[in-house]
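ARCHIVE CARD
CATEGORY: sequence design from structure
SOURCE FIELD: tokenized fold
FIELD CONTENT:
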């Protein structure tokens, strides 16, 4: 079995940064953001080991894994897992066009 590499889209990097930054500002501490970052990265490592771990979306080869309050949207390629975005499931889905971000 081929071990796939992880690549983060710019959107996913920005999503994670914004989420972590929000909690740093809100809590006036990095403690929770560090814990959350570890949790999300641990879930991504599980995806590397088992890419079909998540739920298949309406888009070919795009999957979604929920971890805590966050949805990791990723695409499976032969030798690569592309993290497309990190979505806070508590947000209003109308705040962003998830399908447009995935298809774009």
């Amino acid at each position: 079995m081929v071990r796939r590499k992880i690549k983060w889209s710019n959107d996913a990097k920005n999503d994670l940064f914004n989420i972590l930054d929000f909690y740093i500002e809100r809590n006036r501490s990095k403690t929770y953001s560090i814990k959350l970052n570890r949790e999300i990265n641990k879930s991504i490592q599980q995806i590397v080991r088992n890419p079909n771990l998540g739920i298949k979306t309406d888009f070919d080869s795009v999957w979604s894994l929920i971890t805590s309050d966050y949805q990791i949207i990723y695409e499976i390629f032969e030798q690569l897992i592309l993290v497309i975005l990190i979505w806070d499931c508590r947000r209003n889905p109308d705040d962003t066009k998830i399908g447009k971000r995935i298809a774009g």
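CARD ANNOTATION: The longest strand covers residues 80-88. The chain has one domain: 5-103.
SHELF: design records, drawer C
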